[in-house]
Amino acid sequence: MAQALRNRICDHRYSTMNSSTDILKDMNERSRDVFRAVVESYLENGDPVGSRTLTRTLNEKVSAATVRNVMQDLEHLGLLNSPHTSAGRVPTQVGLRMFVDGLLEVGDLSNQDRQKIDETMGGNSSGMAGMLDRVGSALSGVTQGASLVLTPKHEAEIRHIEFVTLGHDRALVVLVFSDGHVENRLFTPPPGQTPSSMREAANFLNALIEGRTLGDMRGAIQDEIEARQQQIDVLAREMIESGLAAWENDDSDSARLIVRGRANLLSESGPAEELDLIKNLFDDLERKRDIEEFLQLTEDGEGVRIFIGSENKLFSLSGSSLVVSPYMNADRKIIGAVGVIGPTRLNYGRIVPIVDYTAQLVGKLLSDRS
């Protein structure tokens, strides 16, 4: 399974990545071992790694001076650097990219992680929106990072509309789409509504919906009401306007970005300036400034993609990494994505199978609903 997942990780190559991959091929075994040891230690604890520490972890018995010379060569190649005055080294973004592309060992999804994700998605009572919200919470909880879930933009045509009374001050408007998807909203009906006015309102709308999506219908309804004002009962007209107003402030027909677990990433930040950059990142995401850009990250095809630091402008300022995978509907069309944001020292080998499994599971659940 790990090898199959390895094949599902999409390469996101830049010119620096091409050259760094060539460097990896030209490295001798000792240099690769030292480089791998530095990166794995950094990903595990986030601290610079010194030559004396490495001599205790390498399989080959070499002196600290030899390891130090190798690390200097790797630093000269732009794969490692020395933070501040520390004698230790940490990988650069180029070094992390080379490690991810050429040396990363992707493990299998653990039974514990699988169980947590499965349990979170178990309920169906709150519909698709509730399920995707639980997906975001599950991802942030399991990975201890911040999660992103891009929900589908619903573009199917409407097949049927129904108004259902639940009491004198509560009613339900139900929309059935041509792809089998069903959505409903609670709203407060206008005073004095009767079963006949609700039927008239539904009949009026059902006569308009043929071949129209929800977005199309919104623009046509008011024109039709004004053109046929004498034919529509006042109560029915008020019912139409009140019922569809339940959707007016809801972006259910548009892509929506769910962000969960911000505190996890904020707690991992270091200096105050890093904290401010991460806060700005989340502010931008919540304002949906870059939601289209996030969608574009998934459009190159199926598979997990890894973005490190400045490789994507959405995360370049905060210096964060993103592991993201699209999910598909029953027609194998990409309709959304799930991802995890974290520091560049993410445990990529563990996060990748979690994101991959979650994306496939979401796609299956949405296909089954259809």
From TrEMBL:
PANTHER family: HEAT-INDUCIBLE TRANSCRIPTION REPRESSOR HRCA (PTHR34824)
Gene3D superfamilies referenced in this protein's UniProt entry, alphabetically: 3.30.450.40, Heat-inducible transcription repressor hrca homolog, domain 3, Winged helix-like DNA-binding domain superfamily/Winged helix DNA-binding domain
Protein name stated in the entry: Heat-inducible transcription repressor HrcA
Matches recorded under InterPro entries: GAF-like_dom_sf, HrcA, HrcA_C, WH-like_DNA-bd_sf, WH_DNA-bd_sf, WHTH_HrcA_DNA-bd, WHTH_transcript_rep_HrcA_IDD
Entry's Gene Ontology molecular function annotations: DNA binding
Ranges for domain Heat-inducible transcription repressor HrcA C-terminal: 131-352
Keywords: Repressor, Stress response, Transcription, Transcription regulation
Family recorded in the similarity comment: Belongs to the HrcA family.
Entry function: Negative regulator of class I heat shock genes (grpE-dnaK-dnaJ and groELS operons). Prevents heat-shock induction of these operons.
Domain spans labelled Winged helix-turn-helix transcription repressor HrcA DNA-binding: 30-93
GO process terms (BP): negative regulation of DNA-templated transcription
Pfam families assigned to the protein according to its UniProt record, in alphabetical order: HrcA, WHD_HrcA
Signal sequence extent: none
